[in-house]
Amino acid sequence: MVQWARKKLVDYKYLHNAKESGLGIWKLTPDGIKKAESLSTRVNIDYPDDVPETFYEGAVKQIKVNKYERSKTARDKCIDHYGCQCSVCNMDFEETYGETGKDYIHVHHITPLSDIGERYKLDPVKDLRPVCPNCHAMIHRQKPSLSIEALKGLMKKAQK
User: pLDDT digits over 123-132, tens only?
Assistant: First the structure.
């Protein structure tokens, strides 16, 4: 069976004959290589030898972004009311990291400032919530942003 398969591949000019490639060695011809590549179902195969040994980062690139004003007083009033515990996962940085984590928390706008689009009167207790950086990033990972309750639901579902 092997001899028949090899003969057919030699006849199609996909393999060198045994005299050229050696007994027991199946060596592809240039046409054989092209045919094998055309049959491959995977694109962009990464081989360890193909990975560059050096990576470059840190080039300076200027970009223009909108920066929305935030009130430190409103942030402080939110934290005074709710504390420094994440409203989603209950993370408390001081409890976890000691003195280094004391008073550390992000403050999330329930309605993103980018959605409001203009200056508005803020109620720190109604409009803001303390959240840890990970939960804050997950809230804003999609558009529209997830609600705090929706993210809590995702976490609960993932833990089952």
Answer: 999 999 999 9
